[in-house]
Sequence to fold (1212 residues):
Amino acid sequence: MEHQFTPTHYFTTLGSHEPVLTVQPGDSVVTTTVDARGKDANREQVTPRGNPQTGPFFVEGAEPGDTLIVRLDSIAPNRDWAFCGSSVAPNVVRPDFVLELPEAGMAEWDVDVVNGTATLTTPESKLGRLTLPLDPMIGCFGVAAKGGQAISTATSAEHGGNMDYRGFRTGVTVYFPVFEPGALFFLGDGHALQGDGEIVGSGLEISMDVRFTLDLIKEHEIGWPRGENDEEIFSVGNARPLDEATQNATTEMLRWLVQDHGLDARGANLLLAQCVRYDLGNMFDPAYTMVCRVAKSLLPSGS
Amino acid sequence: MEHQFTPTHYFTTLGSHEPVLTVQPGDSVVTTTVDARGKDANREQVTPRGNPQTGPFFVEGAEPGDTLIVRLDSIAPNRDWAFCGSSVAPNVVRPDFVLELPEAGMAEWDVDVVNGTATLTTPESKLGRLTLPLDPMIGCFGVAAKGGQAISTATSAEHGGNMDYRGFRTGVTVYFPVFEPGALFFLGDGHALQGDGEIVGSGLEISMDVRFTLDLIKEHEIGWPRGENDEEIFSVGNARPLDEATQNATTEMLRWLVQDHGLDARGANLLLAQCVRYDLGNMFDPAYTMVCRVAKSLLPSGS
Amino acid sequence: MEHQFTPTHYFTTLGSHEPVLTVQPGDSVVTTTVDARGKDANREQVTPRGNPQTGPFFVEGAEPGDTLIVRLDSIAPNRDWAFCGSSVAPNVVRPDFVLELPEAGMAEWDVDVVNGTATLTTPESKLGRLTLPLDPMIGCFGVAAKGGQAISTATSAEHGGNMDYRGFRTGVTVYFPVFEPGALFFLGDGHALQGDGEIVGSGLEISMDVRFTLDLIKEHEIGWPRGENDEEIFSVGNARPLDEATQNATTEMLRWLVQDHGLDARGANLLLAQCVRYDLGNMFDPAYTMVCRVAKSLLPSGS
Amino acid sequence: MEHQFTPTHYFTTLGSHEPVLTVQPGDSVVTTTVDARGKDANREQVTPRGNPQTGPFFVEGAEPGDTLIVRLDSIAPNRDWAFCGSSVAPNVVRPDFVLELPEAGMAEWDVDVVNGTATLTTPESKLGRLTLPLDPMIGCFGVAAKGGQAISTATSAEHGGNMDYRGFRTGVTVYFPVFEPGALFFLGDGHALQGDGEIVGSGLEISMDVRFTLDLIKEHEIGWPRGENDEEIFSVGNARPLDEATQNATTEMLRWLVQDHGLDARGANLLLAQCVRYDLGNMFDPAYTMVCRVAKSLLPSGS
Fold:
């Protein structure tokens, strides 16, 4: 079943808030998200800034210890304007490096959703009116946090949250551990495009039309968000510093390979050794995000 | 001019050792490297283990403050056997994660240099006789360290060293800062293949036939190793932890974009924001390596 | 006014929970705390484990932007038994260090509250029945977290929480930023004694009789918890890794010296340079704690 | 036997340099050190800056696998002037914290060696002419680095080096692993006083009259520098980040307690748990230094 849902309010923490809609496993939802500062498709401020989330969506039958499946059916910018930071964050450059920049306001981009491009309009720089292809993604999404917590949409943890990874695009399937009854799925903070590391603290921030499908794996426990696309499976580690984010992602991948992909511990170690790939999700948020990827073609057949 | 050089001894520190050969800027060298444990093309132990280096090569006219250009003309495995670690290192998994593995000896691989593949032969695992395409690279190379130091080939710093990045393959041009007269170029520790992070502490360790060309940019100072291939330019940061390696690489890229690629500071910041890519070189050695990449197609034309 | 308060339920997150008592600024509260695992003075399990907190106490008139003053009038163990971990945590030893220990249950201690000592009773080791003087402290306390969050009592942040610093003992005055109306003060997780770093994940865990006095500084904003005793002032930084915890504490101290202690920026820098002391609070919890201390005798007189 | 030694040249790396003097185990040396910038007792520049070292001293009979004992008999400033940095380093404050300070030259201090005090003379600040008691220490000392390396006196590792820990004062006995024949002991970089963390990158930098006694423990391997004073034993971990420095120090202390102090692994773990103390040596140099301390009164008697 497909639900059409029009949000009337938003949340800036991922916790046990009152659900806005209850769905059955297998149902799809068509809805919208506002941008990181709370502006909608009409550039109107409809809620305070801070990665406001659409949701939560209660999935009938979801219990702690299950895994929530989220298929990102469509992530589509729904306006012609985006903004982004214009100065690389101090945490991604050397402490003694001085960024000599004029005052750091937001940069602005014209977005052409028909042709799938964004063009820098301001500020002036030697880049001129740089035009880039869009690659829309969801910056912040996940489920109610564990242990009865309500965690800010500024950060991320085992429940997902503000991971700011450009791999969360249309067509990807994402898996989250369920910590609360109904899972309570939220999403928001769409980016029309983003580099690795989200090193200015933002992608091309924009409101979105989204469609996603929710499903469950009952009694199947995972430690961290996982995902897959046509080519690869990937695990996501969120923490500071990068070392610990990487440790979380690698540990989760080793467990996954053994649990679900037909490898023994020795085989999982040998496979990662020569074939693993890492992506830097973000190195800006309170928790950083590293992603550990393995090509599906390398997995034992049938897995 | 092309020099044929047959090594008779090797070094396990990068410092002001007696040169084995003096070359002119623009000259090429054809030589060999032994594997990380000091074994040559015949699998004979010809020097103690520890990433033994061929060299140093003295480049006539190189002075501190110059940049050494190294073109990797050819990096070719020269035997049919390689080995690698079989257990993921404790620093890339969570501290409380217990790797339940039988005793961790070296894994062995048959290498087919004609067809460009490697096949796992031992130990037994559910991977079976996994066959992978080769992607040969140099694990450890660079110049005499700065400040009169002699730095172990186990680690890396501004002078290069044991960076273990799979992007150092045939056809790549690498730039090193010059700290000592003659630059004193060393290389060794070839890998027939390696995953991101070198997370078992080794790639497919193998001896190599190599050809490289050395040249100079006079009075041109860089802070960290840089490189380029047909598609991209990249800067290399070496340090612990990963955060600091990433900071070094990003800082170097910002400087490079402004110094040599026609961008102003604002443009360099905006470009990296939405377009940068990071690769994890290694997360095993005493200093980790992160690589910051930018597509050449995004640089102002003519740069 | 002094309130006698007997808790009937406890919380394991610091957030906007229903207050258990409303007090006026300047009021004192006499109450009890259970141990980290939810056991009370009679060793009875009265609530689930996880640093359960007594409170929250609503302070009349407290608003975001104020500072809450907490004077720890008395922190007194109220039973004769404590427990602690028996194995140093993997995050405080080298990743390749193998702790060869028999299975790691809890150690137990006899506590003599009259004479102020604790004696190790189990497990057996070459320490024998080691007897140590008590130094009672509060492991986890603070106010409702910022941004509408509810944060687990396993960790800490700007609002305080599980800081596990042995300096939070009787006679100390602590300052917290106020993020929610009423501040909402919580406390629990008493330790009869604890080493630096809480490196086994616990001190001598015990239930407590406590007395504290709450007061306000109106319209006075601080960034992180601060404290003072007869000899010193100190600021507290909570984060991972230790570097960032130290950065938070040092930054807060610099601000404090300039805001409230009559120093200019130059003087604050020069004073810390030669006189600062750091204490490692904990290096076990999800956020670590570093404490930055300055002797009161070094501050400009009158401050 | 006591040797009087007058240095004629200095080194800025710790490696296998030509010894300046050969001594027998048990011998003492009376000599001088210049300050961090190469100035001597007369404030004359006698060698380039960079923590220049007096030595190396070759200890007859020292072999790799032995332990060098260094007793710091006397560390005494020998002039009336010292200098220090005046701005806290960017790596000890939050990345987004802006130090608003006038240009950061060196601060200067009058040193009264008779009365044991230092008085700040410049720059002007609200500290005025702050007077502090001296607590003289050695900032950089150690042995030739391991693996044939020559390591800069800017940094530190297993061989010691630039640890900048205020506990290295008169009366302390320090232990270093021996990596090269003769051990090759160096020392320099005296501080008349220093705070924890050496957070401005310097203590009160000054030239020194020193006396030390060298001895050996044959065939006794240690991993990191160790020390003891009348009250405590301590181990020293050098690395970035602070987490890893702390891990090195803690691991070394556990090994020491079991090897030499009559504890079993369980006892060593339980003792550290409730009794360990940590000191932050420096958080400025390329490798940071953490110190792990245990009171001698807590060790099994006779150890």
